[in-house]
Automatic annotation (TrEMBL):
Protein name, as recorded: Carboxymuconolactone decarboxylase family protein
Gene3D superfamilies from the UniProt entry: AhpD-like
Domain Carboxymuconolactone decarboxylase-like: 36-119
Pfam families assigned to the protein according to its UniProt record, in alphabetical order: CMD
Organism: Saccharopolyspora ipomoeae
SUPFAM superfamilies: AhpD-like (SSF69118)
InterPro entries tied to this protein: AhpD-like (IPR029032), CMD-like (IPR003779)
Superkingdom to which the source organism belongs: Bacteria
Amino acid sequence: MARLEYHSDDSEVAARIRERRGGKLTPLDRMLLHSPAIADGWNSLLGAIRARASLADDVRELAILRVAALNGADYEWNAHEPVARRAGMTLEQTEVLREHAENAGGVLNPGQRAALAYTDAMTRCIEVPDEIFLELRSHFDDQQIVELTATIGTYNLVSRFLVALHVGRSDQGAEADTIDEDGAVA
């Protein structure tokens, strides 16, 4: 069960969130609405990452899934795995992100492997070694690197928020299964 009650809200902020999500609020949204200012900023940031960035969808979802796996955010994983599949990732590719990233060489293309290494470094160590950044730079331009970095950082925020407050935990029944129209958490 979530550590705080889910908030019900008909405010302008909630309306903006519903608009981005196709009319629905997720458990994450309902938790964020305890602080309308945070919920509004979150909605704007995630809207930019999910819908207005130039980063390829498969690379964005690779980073999101890997962050979810590293941080034990099952709700985030379950919401984004179908999005990653629609973005062209195979079941084998998503499985390697969850359990066997060291075996990604034969499953992911070179750009995806560079994004995976960057995601791991940012999430596990924070400081990214030069060799990982140089490999990333050989596959992505400056805008894509900024967008990937923002995606990784933002989804670390999302996953840590979900895990700390037990949002969408599987012991919550049907409430845990409420996700947005394209299956994503944030």
